[in-house]
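Box 3.1. Reading complex inputs
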Amino acid sequence: MGSIVQVTDLVKRFGDFTAVDGVSFSIEEGEVFGLLGPNGAGKTTTISTISCLLSPDGGDVVVSGHSVHGATMAVKRELGVVPQEIALYPTLSAGENLAFWGRMYGLSGAALKSAVNEALVLAGLEDRSKERVEKYSGGMKRRINIAAGVLHHPKVLLMDEPTVGIDPQSRNHILQTVKDLNASGMTVLYTSHYMEEVEFLCDRIAIMDHGKIIAMGTLNELREVVGGMDVVDVKVESVSDSVLECVRAIPGVKQVDRTDSALQVLTPGSGAVLGKLVATLESEGSHVTSITVTEPNLESVFLHLTGKSLRD
Amino acid sequence: MRTLFTIAGKDARILVRDRTALLVMLAMPLALIFILGSALGSIGQGDSLDIDVAIVNQDAGDTGQRFVDGLTGSKEIDALFNIEVSDDADAVRTAVEKGDLTAALIIPSDLTEKITAGEPVGLEVLQDPGSKIAGGIWAGVVRAGVSSASAQIIAVQTLQEELAAAGAGAQPSAPQGAAPEMPPMTFDAVAVREIEAQVDKRISMISYYSAGMTGMFLLFGSMFGAFSFVKERREQTLARMLSTPASKLAIVGGKAIGVLMIGAGQFAVLLIGTQMLFGVDWGQNIGATILVGAAEAIAAAGLAMTLAALGKSERAIGGIAPAAIMLFAATGGSMVPTEQLPKFLLPVQVVSPVYWTVNGFLDVMRGASVADVLPGAGAVLAIGAVLFAFGVWRLRFE
């Protein structure tokens, strides 16, 4: 399958601030592509430019062969957008909201009715379709927010942090919904700063920071960035600079990063390092409160590339 | 076009569920019409015991003057009326037509001549139809004056006849029937013709404030239209709309038509409500009334765009919009008739859609046609077009 979305050297500035700085990637038809990065990395600006809400200051975005330069309506017709905010009308019912957004995409009559019913089933709210959205829980609103973006069966679905601020049960429902939509053939561009979601959903991932893509590939390809090393997270009561130096001097320790009252240690063999690590910390007066060992993940990749946590 | 009405229909549906908006747009104007119309109605209608009237005596003989003296010399009549004696019948007629005078009496030039000849003659009593009670009192006073004058003349004639008869007995040489040769001078032949001023029909206060408050509150639709736009911008539904295959122009047009639809509904409720609740007569030409109201509803849509462009938040619009609407309303005659306002406000009045709308409604109440109110409606549409163009030019979507 070929690329359905091609982003080439995309630049977007707001005054002197460059929010997106030469971003390029392509999304294959039928894949779930993830944009991972901390808040302010430029993910929403990238999605807003693809969905024609913002005009690029440089570069191009092509969706199904239509460029955002001059063919915005054709681009919009290919897309479904699920914004980060719950962009619904609180005093309208779920059914009324869906019907409105369906009409905005040109649906009418029996096709509209069918699409609304289908979207209500997708959101699991077919029994509460006549209730005003303002009476729904946060998770229910999120589900309707997604349903409103897909009821016209777009080729490409752009989802901007769709799980912000919801309970785990609703999050699981949403993640499964994305999987189901993708299984039905929908291409998905999914942005998040939750690495677990991106790891769970995405075939390929681009990691963004400060408006640039700093790494891109499959999950396994990205794990290779940290050399397949184990990640040892150690929580301590305090970490001084001298403690940090002592830990770095332990044989087998390749990298040490400090975050608040925790250390993250990268090592090719955690078994050989753990004992010395704990002994060093205790002898230096940093009492260890917990210690966990994990295989490399996107968090450690991001930490490795930027020296900071995704949630910073 | 379908997108426009989809957006407009959605906005109308949301507004209908907004109790605050309904209170401001429907309940408040009806309450104000009732309060202002009731409180000021008696003053406006001139039914106080200080009624302004005029007398024009055109009689070439002395009967008219005696009649005037009888009316102006009475303390009882003086307690009820401010009587102005004038020589200018046309000016007095105009004053009654304008409502500056409640009533008037015009004595014809041939009163004495016709009474003397025993021919019928008419006294013309003009009255403002908006002040029927006061006008009726004046007509009653004139009739009473006619009866009294007739009785006096008959008494004088009888006395003269008796004196003549007695004189004939003492002086047989006197020709018989000398007294009967006197003309049968009597006011019985005088008819009081009550004439209502037709050219400028006076309007009751409740009707006036129905026009005034409707003219003012139709503009409040613009405030809620601007609220809607800014709220959509804040809650990102506007951005979501922009991500659909709808152009910015279609979205702005849909929002504007939404305000227009809301204004049309509000106008219908106020029109029917004031008729049913207060018996307001909006005039015979419903087409002209609708034209005037529709023009202002369109102007409200234009104002909504300007407000949405100027106000960055709902709070800002909540400050700007009532101030602007109140200024338009105060200078446009919603609160007091424009002729009572200082002349220096004239430049403000002409750019106030309320001014043209209120005057349009009042003109239709007085009998104006569609053609008569077209210029005013055109002025309102022009103001609306300028506001719409400015709003669209300055509107921020992000």
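In summary: Chain B touches chain A through 21 residues (CB under 8 Å).
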